[in-house]
Amino acid sequence: MQIQQIIKELEAWAPLPFQESYDNAGLLVGDPEQICKGVLCSLDCTDKVVEEAIEKGCNLIVSHHPIIFKGIKQLQAGHYITRVIQKAIQHNIAIYAIHTNLDNIIDGVNKSLADRLHLEKRRILDPKPGITDKNGEKIGSGLVGELPLETDPKAFLIWVKEKFNLTTLKHTQIPDKQLKTIALCGGSGSFLLGAVKAQEIDCFITSDLKYHEFFEADGKYLLVDIGHGESEQFVPALILAYLTSKFPTFAVLQSLVNTQPVTYLKD
């Protein structure tokens, strides 16, 4: 089976036209006609992930974040992007990124969070006008769903911390009302604060919020920042599950490398 057959299934799930204009999803390194020996799914593509692919005999890495994102004018010796690309090329390993196109579908990145919170009645938070997937589902940023039961906000935060294996989280003042409707955005979600405020939403969970952006909640909803990598930590397993469902007898593996660059000092 060729690498392009794997890519065809990925793009049937999260089509490249669904990505944001600034993004760089798709095949970044490698030959799509090369025979695929195995797939390694990861959050990021680092040199350690490439080394893991070599050790495990995988010649296709499917990562969420693109290793080539901004325009590159030169490959500078010693830079981590250069190391990754050079090592991948030297070992005939293809690199594919499935990024904001996976963010923008109802069963993509945000599904991996919504499933753990058992959210029901799911919908896109900020749909793109006039654009749907092949099943007629709206596409766009964020996801909104409802908890099975109204929940005490402090108990909910403790539950989120447990479900997402968090060391810490940041949030606005705990409200004195029960929570029911929850909005989610894996990755950086500050651009959705206006959409959240315009709707009947009790809590918004995302990451990369700046200090002054917490004021935007203005007491109308609970705003929670769980960290960028933490909000996308389940994406490799999501990709793995999808590809395994399409290629049940093929070698599709999840990376064991922790690529998150942020760590926390614990007591």
What does this structure look like?
The chain is α/β, with parallel strands linked by helices. It folds into two domains: 3-99 and 234-254, 3-Layer(aba) Sandwich (Udp-n-acetylmuramoylalanyl-d-glutamate--2,6- Diaminopimelate Ligase, Chain: A, domain 1), CATH 3.40.1390; 117-231, Udp-n-acetylmuramoylalanyl-d-glutamate--2,6- Diaminopimelate Ligase, Chain: A, domain 1. The chain is 28% helix and 25% strand. The protein contains nine helices and eleven strands. Helix 2 (47-56) links the parallel strand 2 and strand 3. It is globular, with a radius of gyration of 19 Å. It starts with a helix and ends in a 13-residue tail after the last strand. The model has no long low-confidence stretch (mean pLDDT 96).
